[in-house]
Amino acid sequence: MFWLEEAGLPMTGANISRAMQLSPPTVHEMVGRLVDDGYVARNPNKSLTFTESGREHASHIVRRHRMIERFLTDVLGIPWDEVHEEAERIEHAMSPVLEERMRAAIGDATTCPHGHPIVEGIREQGSLLADVAVGADVTVLRFENEAEELLHYLRAAGLEPGLDGKLESSDPDSVTIRSAEGNHEVSRSVAETVSVRADPAPPPRAAIPEQLVLSSDRYGR
Asked: Which of 29-43, 118-132, 206-220 has the highest mean pLDDT?
């Protein structure tokens, strides 16, 4: 739900169902519990809104998760494509003291290793790599889908946040960035999950909820 709001997508039961690949009745029950607990409010148009306490709680969970990922990569040296699920295991058993030590250890880092902001309010919208025209200069901003199998695929292709290059080619099957390190080719469906800063930039387009879901059919893996 926090991802939907952060990405500028309507926070609705339908979008939550699509993003999490859950049935509508399951999502309805889950949302009902969040409403009862005072974390979420229902709007007249059937969309959902975080309450003040709900947004604070969700934001803290997400920022802590991203901080742990940064700690695992920068301090412990774990490859960035292996830390997402590890961080999920750690975050539920972490004391406030350990959290503060980790925060101090990562210094002034502002994003997780996959490019998502640790500090609220610094997210750059960017463009989806699949929309960028051939010849444009690009800088990889973040990976919208952090499923570990997809992160392995992106790392094997040589893509990572901060990579600078030029869009070498783009066709119905694949998209290729040329950088100082060589060519980095990904399938077009994977390019739909990579946000970049592009010059010239294509018209803005929001990510879609399915980009959270790793699917062998969708991503051609």
From this structure: 29-43
| Torsion sign across C-alpha atoms 148, 62, 91, 68 | positive
Tell me the domains of the chain and their CATH numbers.
1-50 (1.10.10.10), 54-106 (1.10.60.10), 127-199 (2.30.30.90)
The secondary structure of the chain in percent helix, strand, coil, rounded to multiples of 5, reads: 45, 20, 40
Q: What are 40's strand-pairing partners?
A: 50
Distances (CA, A) of 45 to 4, 17, 32: 17, 17, 16
CA 3 – CA 116 distance, rounded (Å): 10
**Residues 6+ positions from 19 with CB-CB distance below 8 Å:** 3, 4, 209, 210, 212, 213
Task: Give the global pTM.
Answer: 0.84
pLDDT in tens, 178-200: 999 999 999 998 999 899 999 99
